[in-house]
Amino acid sequence: MKKIHLLGLAVLSGLLLSISWPANGFVPLIFVAFVPLFFIQDKLGSAPEKKRGGAIFAYAYLTFVIWNALTTWWIWNSTGIGAVAAIGLNSLFMATVFWMFHQTKRKLYDNKKGWMILVFFWLTWEYFHLDWDLSWPWLNLGNVFGARHMWIQWYEYTGTAGGTIWVLVSNIVVFHLVKLLTGWRANRRKISMMLAVLVVLLLAPIGISVLIYNRVVESGTTAEIVVVQPNFDPYSEQYELPPAQIIDRNLNLALSVMNRKSDFIVSPESAIQEAIWEERMEQSEGIRQLRGFLKEHPEITLVIGASTFSNVPAGLEDHPAVRKYSNYNGYYFAYNTAFYLDTTNRIQHYHKSKLTPGVEMMPSWSILKPLRNFAIDLGGTVGTLKVDDERKVFVHKDGVFKIAPVICYESIYGEFVAKFVRNGANMIFVITNDGWWGDSPGHRQHFLFSVLRAIETRRSVARSANTGISAFIDQRGDVFQETPYWEQAVIRQPLTTNDRITFYVEYGDYLSRIASFVAAIFFIYGFTRGLLKKLKSAI
């Protein structure tokens, strides 16, 4: 196979991965998207040592650069540097994982078998990518089914890791089937068996999903939710208009549809633009404005986003999120905050705890410490933010409704959101601001993560996005009243609570943890065996 053919296969895999990706991709292509790259690995893994070199890494990197660039190019709309970093680094990490699989498969099985090693390595990578300073799990393979929620109702048992396994195993089976087809006369029986395996592998999960979907019954308490989409341009008016005017638009939109049965108003991330100091929250003009509204409408509870600050207690001056006052000697923390306000005197609040790398957080590694206060300025609070150590749940004054306040980027993380549910949440409110990327696939992809979280946790979701998409999502992942992008909108709908704990909520990303253990064994065994071979040949 010539280099030009290998290059074409690498490009083809990248294109297939991209075309399959939501929101508007043709998802079934994901089941064959890795096959061209597998043929490259099969060819190079069997080639003489001197011809292998870093070729497999180079071809894999090309595949993953194409995939990352064509699906997440929209990052460029907010930051060019961030787009290059996200696409380049994520592709580098993916190619490294594929190269490690290639090396391990070759050392342990002389490249003749061992394809399942990729499943363990890839799951380990995705799991690790969920929880480190450069976390960007946007393209974790299980996310591809966000636009096909009828296929993956079993995510309540597996989370997105189950989807990753489905994708990779299907590609492995298709690869072997295509290889058999090249000698179809001699392999008719094997081809028939492999076709049967593939049909079951593709259709059985969908059939099981449909059965689960039809058995999900919502039987909890109903709350009527009003979701506001105020539609402020995040690059200009949201940070330039008077804070009172921004709050007024949120409240006036809500007033246009709410009635005496309405229980909650949900407004987006950063809807309160006043700088609120947490030591004196009741002195905030914005809080007073909202208190006045609640006095007139005592039946309502408000969930709304804000930027808040607090002074740094003594002894925490070396914390990675510390910021120094510019005009005097002292330090403070900044937060991305969700407020929960009702007619009681208590203000419940939660600080965003999964931060966007490069925007809300710089890596805390000591080598990068001089850069910790540097971040890409997107028009709002920049630099490393302080986070909460626990997943706080907002509890309604009557104790019936318990809300998970999920802020923006946090909706990407399945096990993270599940922790809110383990702490008692029986509904999820997602507040976000997706206007940074323009009318691109970015905000549509981000929306679909909320569908996945609804299925995994079997919790109804109310999603308020400053510029859209706002919507309601029920416990089966069905979407209601999806709003247009970049338009003022307000929607109202009853949602049902659920106190049942799903298998996934109880055990989280257990599949990935098991895979990580198995991957470590494969890697250590492969490394040791390769080292022993070199020592033996040197003697």
Shape: globular
How many structurally independent domains?
2
| Count of helix runs | 16
Gap from first CA to last CA: 36 Å
What percentage of amino acids are in beta strands?
5-15%
- Rg, alpha carbons: 25 Å
Helix/strand-derived category reads alpha/beta
- Tell me the number of strands: 14
- State the helical fraction: 40-55%
What does this entry show, briefly?
The protein has 539 residues and is of the alpha/beta class. The chain has helices spanning 3-20, 35-45, 49-52, 55-72, 80-109, 116-129, 155-158, 160-181, 188-215, 237-240, 243-255, 285-296, 414-422, 441-457, 503-507, 510-538, and strands spanning 222-229, 262-266, 272-277, 301-311, 323-324, 331-341, 347-351, 394-395, 402-407, 427-432, 461-465, 471-473, 479-480, 489-496. 44% of the residues lie in helices and 15% in strands.
